[in-house]
Amino acid sequence: MSINGRIRLPSGHNAQEEFLLGRIGASSFLRDRIRTRLTQAFGRCTRGPTDYAAIILIGSPLVDFCIQKEVRSNMHPELQAELDYGLNMSGDANPDDWKELLLAFLKQEKDWRDADDWIKRQRDRVVRSGDKAAEQYAAIVSDEVAYLYNMWKGDYNEALARAKKISDALAGNEVAGYRAWWYYLAGSAAWLSNQTVKNTSHLEIAKDMFARAAACPTAVSWFSALMRMGIFDNLIPEDDYLANSAVENVEEFVARIGFNGPKFERAATEFTKLIDQNGYIQFTQGLEQLGNFLGYTSWRPGTSGSPDCIWKLSDKLCIALEAKSEETAEDAIPLRDARESRGHLDWVASNVNLTTDSETIVLLVSPRSKIAKDALPFTERVYLIGLDEARDLSRRAISVVRGARAQSTDGAEEVLRASIQSQLFEAHLDPKHLLNELRKTPLNILPQR
Question: In the chain, fewer beta carbons within 10 Å around the N or the C end?
């Protein structure tokens, strides 16, 4: 399935699926539907026992989906075996290898007959097992229907009871996105109950349910943003909201470069080469990549008077970076560098869409550790980070993403999101700790020269 030139999974066929997958991240909820659609598509390629067809999986989302054990284990044993063979053969294959394999298949020569024998033996070994997440979803169907009927009837108390029963029944990180969704629906029922009969205890229940939704291990920023609309007095702390946004952004970044395969390591190697160079162009390209690895929307404006790079997180935090990687370490930071850096605060205010309560800081990335006395008036909200510090930060960021990928070997979206969250916090690269680290050296505390 291709949308706007981007290969996607056969999901999002309606508004509900788009919401559950794109906003809630409940990929395990849609897994059975996607698996059924793929099985149907594969089945259309061969209708009889003598038919044969080469099926090519195009795009990382589709390959990553088929790699998941929970996806394949619920398929027909023969399809499992065929996918096992294809995945095993594709590990280190290059275009020439693929051409040779495809020709052997199309000619049905001895090499392919040997492969076909392997697939048959594998088919006889594997078994079709259940999908544990799907089993949890199947168990709550009757309560989901009852919730909807009670909401339509205006029986919010019974709807609340059903929603709480559903959320209690969903256990584990793999179903956390959908559990968060039902916390939200429980909160909605409680809030409506308070609005109709002024049941104050239900208002407290609504607050609790909404807070649980935002605090799920795979919480999405959509829930956190809901809590910041004023209805519940900003129930979710700013730090949690920013952390959820960063986790989502890292997850999207991993999806773009591929959950499995060598593409990630190639991207990490290229990133390291860029950030390790002192040349202005290469170094600023490295800073842009660093923002992506840390979970920020990162770009280089490239206009007159603009920062060299911008890191933006939601509409609440903006970090403007000014790179001086080609300067000598012995000299002091001059007036022009400080004034240029301080001016980026005004540039951000005029050119970046942020809320009135957002925070903006400027990072001067420079090998220098002293400042000229006449530069001091231009140091407000400008902080220094050394080249070596930026490079160390880069390696820590790569380690976070690499660790998250390693912890989520099956590629399930909810598990990946939980892994990213834990890795960011363990490395102290979540927005709160990272911001504290970046602000540890204000320009105005540097030794003067």
Answer: C
d(CA 71, CA 233): 42
What is the Cα–Cα distance from 223 to 187, expressed in whole angstroms?
A: 11
Burial of 405 from C-beta contacts in 10 A (0-12 / 13-18 / 19+): buried
Distance, in Å, from the CA atom of 59 to the CA atom of 296, rounded to the nearest integer, reads 24
pLDDT of residue 221: 57
Render the burial of 35-63: b for 16+ CB within 10 Å, e for the rest. Answer: bebbeeebeeeeeeeeeeeeeebeebbbb
Torsion, Cα 374 376 380 383, to 10 degrees, reads 110
Mean pLDDT of 423-434: 91
> pTM of whole model > 0.70?
no
Tally of CA atoms within 13 A in the half-sphere of 90 that contains its CB:
19
How many residues can be counted in the chain?
A: 449
> Cα separation of 126 and 355, whole Å?
55
Q: In the predicted model, is pLDDT for residue 229 greater than 80?
A: no
C-alpha to C-alpha distance for 72 and 35, rounded to whole angstroms? 8
- Average pLDDT (317-344) is 94
Task: Tell which CATH architecture fits domain 252-445.
Answer: 3-Layer(aba) Sandwich (3.40)
Structure tokens at 70: 């929970």
362 vs 181 pLDDT, higher one: 362
Q: Where in the chain is the domain with CATH 3.40.91?
A: 252-445
What are 274-293's pLDDT values in tens digits? 999 999 999 999 999 999 99
